C-alpha cells in the first residue's frame, strides 16, 4: 500500500490528525446552501455517481470524491449501502493506494457476481518521467457487506488507435453470461466514442471487441464521450444508451450548458446501435455523468454539477451533490424520469394552499411543490430577499424558462447565460423539489427534467405567483447517515 501525498494528489490515508474535522467545521459554516435530502459530500468535492448495484438485499452507491477541498484532486470512491435511499450506511471507500491508480480512482460501475460486488473503475495515473496520463481499467472486489477484498489492474494503457482518454467502465452481463464493459474514449483523431471489452469471467483478461457505433448521433465537434451506460428495457424490448458527450454545439432550447448528458433509445445489435430517438437527459443548469442500476426497475442517479465549474459553496470547502434516485421509463421512445416512489411515500401529506402575489410558505426551500399548469402561461418567483434576489420559473404556453439572473452569479452564467429553456407544449403537471440550493423540476410526470443549483443567501420563504392560484405542498424526508 502506498500513501500518496503530492499536492492535490493526496489520499485520505495522508490526512493529518484533525485535518478532515477542521474542513468539516468550515463546511458547517455554510448555513445557506447545504441540502437536507440530497447526498452531498461531508467535505470536499463530489462528482459522478459510481458503482450503483443492488446486491439482492440492499443497494451499493458510490460517488467520486475528493475529501480535502472543493476541487478536482485525488479522486476516491465514497461508498454507502442503503435499503430505502433514506438511511445510508458507510462502507469501505475505494482509496487510491496502488501504482495503477496513483492519481485517482476515476469513474466506473459495478456488477453483482456470485456473492461479490465487482467494481470496474479507471485508475488515473501519470508517468513520472513526463507526467503523461496513462489510464488503467481496474477491478476491485467487495463483499456484499461493503468490505473491500482486493484490487487488480485489468488493462494498462489505452488500446491502439485511442488517446490516453479511455475511462469510466460500466459493466453488464451478456445473454450468454459473459461480462462486458463499455468505456468512454477518444480516438486518435480527437473524436469521442465508446469502446467495449469482454471477459468470460472475473479472472479472465479483457479483450477489446470494438467501438459502439451510433450513426444517428451528430458527433461533430465532440471530442470525448464520458460515462457511457448501456442497458436494455426488457418490457419495451428497447435498448437505451446514456452518455456524456463533450464538445457538442449548444442549441437554443437543448444542450445549453458547457457539457451535456444525452440518451439514445433504439436497438442494439452486437455493437451497432440503431437509435430512434436521441435527446438531452436533463435541461437544467447542472446535470452530468448519470449512471443507472437495475432492481425490478431501472433507476438513475446524476451528478448535480458539471466539469470545470466553481460554485459559491467552494468557499465552505464543499462542492456538488447527487440527484435523488430517478425511476426511468419509456413512453414512445422518450425516456421519462421521476423520483422513485419511496421519495413520495416518505413525504409528509400533501396540502393544498392558495397562492397570490405574496405568499409565505414555511420551509419553502426544502419543500416539494406541485400544480397543474393547465397549459397556460404562468410565472412564479421564489425566495425574494432584501437584495432583490429571486429564482423565476415562467411558461409562455410552449416553453418553460428557469431564470437564475437575479441569483448569485456563477462563472457558468457569465459564459453560458442565466436562463435555461425547455420546449414543452401541453404542460400540465409541474413538480419542483427544492432543497436549499437545488431545484429538481419534473414536467408532465417526468417527460422532461430540469435540475439546477441556485444560490440565494438570506432568502425569504416567499412565493409570488401569476396565473397559478393553488399549489400542493409537502416535505420530503431528510437523509440519515449511520
Ligand atoms: C466525469 C469524469 C469522468 C472521470 C471522472 C473523474 O465527470 O470526468 O470521465 O472518470 O469524472 O472524476
Automatic annotation (TrEMBL):
E.C. code: 3.2.1.26
Signal peptide range in chain numbering: none
Organism domain of life: Bacteria
Pathway(s) this gene product operates in, as recorded in its UniProt entry: Glycan biosynthesis; sucrose metabolism
Protein's organism: Caviibacterium pharyngocola
UniProt keyword annotations, A-Z: Carbohydrate metabolism, Cytoplasm, Glycosidase, Hydrolase
Entry GO MF terms: beta-fructofuranosidase activity
Protein name: Sucrose-6-phosphate hydrolase
First-listed, main subcellular location of the protein, grouped into a coarse class: cytoplasm
